[in-house]
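Q: What structure does this chain adopt?
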Amino acid sequence: MTSVHRVATGAIAASLVAGLTVVATATPAAAATKITSPSEDTVASSATKVTATLDVLTKGRLLVNPPDGPERVADTGYKSISTTVGGSSVPNGTYEVTLQSALTALWVDRDKVTVVVRDAPSTPDGVTATRSGRKVTLRWDAGSEPDLVGYEAVSSFGETVRTSGTSATFTVPSSAAGRRVGFGVKARRHTSPGSSSTISSPTSNTEYVTMPGASTARESSGGGRAGGAGGLDDSYGEVAAPSALPDLEPLSKNSPLSLPNVSPDQEFQYSDPEGDQAVTGLPEAKKSPQVRAAEAIASLSPQRWGLGAAAALLVLLVAAHIGTWSRRLRPAPAAARVGKLAKTRDRDGDDATTAEASGNYRGRRRRAHRSED
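A:
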């Protein structure tokens, strides 16, 4: 019997040790099963991930209670589980996330967090602006958020249009004539279902339209993208404001000038300054001789120009013939004078020769007589 008692006592002791070991390992399991992120009462501006950790051999699940519907099971598993609350495909609002674990067939709540999501809508895309007179129509693509309230179209001259559609029409003031005017749009969505508060997206890319006016060289019926999103420039673009014009008093039909009536399908006919519509009472301007000569030349018709050129050519030809004829007549008198002069010189030469011969003869005679004596 003693041996039997000893064996029984050993078995009981071993069972007690095993039970204490199970209890000692079960206590840390309960402490490790919890939601690790985010913290309680978190306010997020975008979709938020909720993460939970579980002890070894412990099965857990996450339950999400959204602001617009019933509670649902988001994730189930071991060791680590997670889910995401909020985003563009679900409404903004308060999300309750509960962590449950099960050692048996029963699920037991282990941890819970509350997350408030206020996610701004996406910036509208596909923005275009078209002008018709002083009216500008802005259009854009619709957003995909389920809790969109509408849109807010803005302009650089301060006008704002709120609409639930995808277009807005502005009437541009006359003070913006000749300037570039900018337009943009923002989307708006609720911060939670049933709430009157909203949250807006950033302003879309700015679309510019050039308004017609005296200070602009060309008109634009569309707009060009100006770059990144943001607020609109209050300067109406890059064109300077037109200067103020002085007030003019009407002439009450007493103007000294008058214009002829011209039909749209007729050419404009200038009035004759010498006729009935000439301006009277003005001093006559004095013209210089050069101006009068230029006006006389300019008044000649092409036919007169041709006749004048022909006459000048004829005068040149006649003068050329007269010069040639006069040159031919000049050598005859000159030759006669030269011949007469030559004859005179020959006659004088002969007389001198005769006189010289006669003198020589007389000298010889005198010498002969002297020798005889």
